[in-house]
Every structure is written in structure tokens, then in C-alpha cells.
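Exam review. A common question shows you a sequence with its C-alpha cells and asks you to describe the fold in words. Practice with the pair below. Do the first one on your own.
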Amino acid sequence: MPEQPIIQPTEFDPEDEYRPEPEPEPQAPSWMDGSLRIGIHTSIAGSYLNALESARKLGCNALQIFSASPRMWQGGSARIPEVDAQAFRARRYELRLGPLVIHANYLINLASEQRMLQTRSIQAFQDEIVRALALGADYLVVHPGARGEATAKQAISTIIELVKQASKRVPMGGLRILIENTAGMGSAMGARLEEVGEILAGLRNLPVGACLDTAHLFAAGYDIKSEAGLASTIGQIDGAIGLENVPVFHVNDSKIPLGGRVDRHEHVGKGKIGTEAFARILRHPRFGAAGPEGLAGRAFLAETPIDDPGDDRRNVAALWELAGLQEQAPAAEKGFSMLTPALKKKITENRKMQKKRKDNADSPRPGRGRRRKQRFAEKKTPTKKSVAGKRKTRKRSAKKRRR
């Protein structure tokens, strides 16, 4: 048997050692290019894709949506099929819309003392997080809730704990939770900027920030209408929250005067805050999306009413104009509105029907009162026949007694 050749061991070369390639640093999304982001809340009716197309047709470069009905408890079944989520993400990338903000369900009350409502709020908020991640959202906005009979300190602790519970074991990825300020109705938390700041401080280990609503600020007593008042409010935001932690503003005028503590949105420039104030806000370097004073990707989103077809388009156009950027605004589709004449007619008819049903439920049935009165009168007023019958009865009774 022939001898096998002896193989000499090769000399080790340090250059041959495997060196894993360093992970590439995540790139900032395209919408964080230093341009101001302006949008509006768009409807997901019919399809999530419809919300993107509405934003495009209204001349937006950012948008806000609900991920499901905002006034119903969805339950665990409210998941978005992956095929729909993928189509949404792909179309959004094509349209270069961003940021994408999702507003959480209105029924969620993170400040509640009631155990049952706490449980439902945790589950509903976790579902919101899951849907937001599926759609590739950048921010998830939530109201802090109402504290009921609890103290503000107790409510803040509850809010912090419930947000932690809802986000537990959910990989947040690039999603950031934003606590929204409120107008201060009833026992609502978050009307004071200090309360929002305390909530964020308690959640510092999570990706969180704040969303500030102009109508809520004004109704809560922050004078953003005057130049001096705006400067003072900016100082208070810096002190309580840090303006760098406010990537999203809800830009709404207010039907309520300063300090009215009621949440009533009005068309931009048509309410108590006014056109001049919004121009001052949208052009302020501290509120901008470019350095050195601004925050890259900062978005201004309208939540204004749509009373007539075209109101949505006009409010978006007003924001671009007041920001002095109408030349840079994406082209809006002429005549487009989320509220079509046919839809407005249908909504008006539904409201009339609801009012009619309510009125019928609140008022007695037609003629019901008259019939009752008539029966009562018949019992009280004796007729000739009834009197004669009573006399015969008395006579029979008298004869029996004599027997």
C-alpha cells in the first residue's frame, strides 16, 4: 500500500481571521431632511391606503390616522393583515410621506382608578402599539386620561405604570410614544405642561416624547396668541418637557377663549387664536425642522373640522401659507376633499335621523297623555248608566238585609 503524503500544517496568518462587518448605522428617514412637515388627520375608511392617497391629494407631506375605530373597544382581533400592512408601508415609501402619526383610541384612560378600565386600557394601548408597528408608524399619540377622584400625583403614577405594562415585551423598534397635552376639561390630566413632563420623566427608559396641541394649550391658559405669551410658553415648554422632545404639534385654532378649559377645535386662523399667531408659531425658529434651533422632521398636523367639502384642503393650504412655504408645498388635487357632497348629505341625514329618534325617546308618545286623561276623567265623572246601576245594587243589598 503506497504511503500517504505527509501534509505540513500551514502557518496561521492573522489576516485570515474572520472579522464580522460592522453593522451599518441606521439612516435617518427621508422625511428628516430639514424640511417642515405639514399634514392633516386622514381617514382610513375603506382601506389604510386611502389615508395615504388622501394626504397626497390634499397637498401634505405628513399625516395622522387612527389605526382602528377610535370610539370602540377593538379586542385582540383588531390586527392588520400583513399583506395590507406591507402594501401600506410600500405605498407610503413611494409617496415619501412622513412622519406617520397614529392617534390612539379615545376610550383609553391611562389615569383611571377603576381596575376594569385599567385592564381594558392596557390591552387597547398594547393593540395600538402592535398596529402602529405593523404600519411602520413613527409616533403613537395618546391622551393621558382622566383621574376621577384621585390626586394628580396618584394619576401620574398610574399613567406611568399602565404605559409600562402596555409596552412590556413589545419590541418598540423605531416607534415613539407621545403624550398629548389636554384642554383641562373635568379631571383630565395633562393640561399643565408640568404634568406631561412628570409623565415623560417616569417613562425615561422608553422611547417617549410629547405632542402639543395648540387649541389645548390655549384653552388650558397658555397665551400662545400674543408674541410675549408665545415666548413665555416656549420657556415653560423648555422647562417642563424640553422642546427637543416635542416632534409633533397638532395645529388647531380654538372656538374657546383663553383659559376656557374646553376642547373645541376650529379652522386654522378662524378661531380665538387667529391667523397672526399661527404665522408666528409656524415661522418661529424654535418650532422649525431645521438646525440649529429646530428639530429635524418636526411635523404640524391639523385636526380641524370638515364642515363643508374642501375644508380639509383649505386648512392644509393655510398652514403652508402661514409658514411662508406655499411655493414648496406639494401640489394638491384641485377640488379633492375627504368630505364629498354625497357624503355630507348622508351625514346630515344620519344626524337628522338620530335627532328624531332621540326626540321621540325623550318625549311621550303622541296622544298618550290625552288618552290617560280621558280614562281618568271617565272614572271620575259618573254617567247616567253607572248611577242607575249603583241604585239597583243598593236596593238589592237592602232587600237582603231585611230578609
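Now try the second one, then compare your answer with the model answer below.
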Amino acid sequence: MQPNREADVASFGNETFDDGNIVFSPYWKSELRQSVKRAIDIFGAAFLVTVLSPLFLVLAMAVKLDSPGEIFYRWRVMGHGGRPFLSFKFRSMIRNADDLKDKLEARNEMTGPVFKITGDPRVTATGKWMRRYSLDELPQLYSVLKGDMSLVGPRPPLVTEYERFTGYQKQKLSVKPGITGLWQVNGRNQIHDFDEWVRLDLDYIRRWSLWLDTKILFRTVTAVVTGCGK
């Protein structure tokens, strides 16, 4: 969707943030390019769901057999314009993982409102393998088909993370979030400053083109195949 530039302040739920410093690629104004991006999302997601449906079944069985709990993790996140939506991942952690998060806060490797640690003890054996190849992310293709997400875009934050965002950090939601993006293909495991992550998302917004999306998708395939995830 095309960002709203009619005001210097963009509304995010009950909050606002100043988007006066955001530089948008001129291609966001092109309805044709926006339509092509959406078409790529729909056909790409539909193709992947169809082709990978046997893998979905295998992963679902592996999650269920590995540890007690649901197959899918219900992931409540913020989307374009600060609108919350419910997405899904294959569950990669033990059932009560969210309840244990506070006890691990001291080990957080990220500065800012997000949480990330190496060797998270809550991750299951199957989850560790899925994360390495980003297979736990595959159910988000459903969110792409629904229109809540794009194949490429800024990473959507959890609702609980968004509540702690600064105005600068909220700017990453000026466009539709994506499954993959510049952060994922530019050393995500080496980035420990959330503002650097946001900088990459804003750089994506500034540089966006269909060609940039294509390059990110190809680099994502390489990262998945080589098992760069954690």
C-alpha cells in the first residue's frame, strides 16, 4: 500500500509518530508497481504453499512428536500503520516459552525492545533445526495471501515489542511488513543493536523497487539453503 504523506504525523492505533524524516522511494507512488508487488506476493505464496505442502505435513508431525503443545505458534504482531494482526509460525519452542522469557532477560543480546539470545534453552530440538533453515517461518505465507504481509518488507514486531518502540523505531511500519528483508540478508545474526535493524528497514523503504525485492528474495533463498538462521 502507498504510504500516506498528507500529514507529517502518521497514526498508529492510539499513538502517533513523526514520519517527517522518512525518505520513501518514488516507486511507492506507482500503482502499477504496487500491483505487481502484490501479484508477486499472491502467486509466489500460493506456489510455495502448493509445492511445499508435503514439507508442511512433515514439519507439523515433527513439532507434535518432539514436545507437548500446539503445532503452530500464534504470533500477534503489528503490521502496516500499526494495525495488529495474528500470524502463525511452526512452534519452535517449548509450550510455556513465553512464561520463561522474563527469567532470561539478563541474557538478551539485543539492545532495545526486542529479545534475542544465542542457544535459547526454550528452543526444542526440532525447533533448532527448523530455525537454522527458517522453516518455522513458512506458515507466514498465509499472512501474505491474506494481505497482512508481503514476501519482502520490514520485519513485523510483536505487539509487546511495539509498545516499547520509540517514534523513530515505529517508522519501520510505514509500509507493509514482510517475511524477509534487508535485515535477514545482511547479517541478522551479527546485528545486536535494534536501531541498526531499524536503519536497514528504513533503508529498504528509501530504496524500494521491484528489482530490490527480487535481489532480496534470491539472497534469502541462498541464506535458507546454506542454513544461516538461528
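Model answer, second protein: DSSP finds ten helices and six strands in the chain. Residues 31-51 form the longest helix (21 residues). Full marks require stating both points clearly.
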